[in-house]
Amino acid sequence: MLDPRLYLVTGDTRGRPLADIVGAAVDGGVTLVQLREKDARPDTLAARYDELSIAIGDTRVPILVNDDADVARTTGSAGVHVGPDDIAPAEARDLLGADALIGWSIHDLAQLGDTENVRASDYLAASPVWATATKTDTTAPLGLAGVAALRRSMPPHVPLVAIGGIDATNAADVIAAGADGIAVVSAICSAADPEAAACELRSTVDDALARRES
């Protein structure tokens, strides 16, 4: 089941084992994990997936693979996250089947006109909300106004996740703008205490969602 409230995308762990970071983050409240290693060989990516699966144990937190639908299929991962330059969500759906979780990064309102791929996606990711050092090849930041515009223009039943420059200081603003969850990299992966960082972020998101719905 998709719960997009606190979505961890893997990144630089400052030399610490990735599995340890992910396990701690899940203990702290992460609800979804994306394994993102753009330059990794398929066999390396598959091995890393196995490590993360062991780390999260029986928590049932889904692990998605970034971009590589073939690795997602062979590992039995929950699904795949793709961007506009990757395999299309509709193609990923054909490859992985109806039960797979498929996410699609959205950089502008024009992408929402691609109804086939919007329908094939379980969630959409507004990317990037703000500039970030994690990814330098991104399009212009959407800002909070962009997040709000996407939410208004999207099918109401499709969850919207926001990513890019988000941390505990601005997560509530992103939720107030219309996001149903936040995706973070360095806010957890680079934190001195990933479990505590995840706990703070999860609390912030939950409180913001409660305020929005009240």
UniProtKB/TrEMBL annotation:
One of its GO terms (cellular component) is cytoplasm. GO terms for molecular function: magnesium ion binding; thiamine-phosphate diphosphorylase activity. Residues 6-188 form the Thiamine phosphate synthase/TenI domain. It holds the Pfam family TMP-TENI. Pathway: Cofactor biosynthesis; thiamine diphosphate biosynthesis; thiamine phosphate from 4-amino-2-methyl-5-diphosphomethylpyrimidine and 4-methyl-5-(2-phosphoethyl)-thiazole: step 1/1. The keyword Transferase applies. Its cofactor is Mg(2+). Mg(2+) binds at D67, D86. HAMAP family: TMP_synthase (MF_00097). PANTHER family: THIAMINE-PHOSPHATE PYROPHOSPHORYLASE (PTHR20857), THIAMINE-PHOSPHATE SYNTHASE (PTHR20857:SF15). This is Thiamine-phosphate synthase.
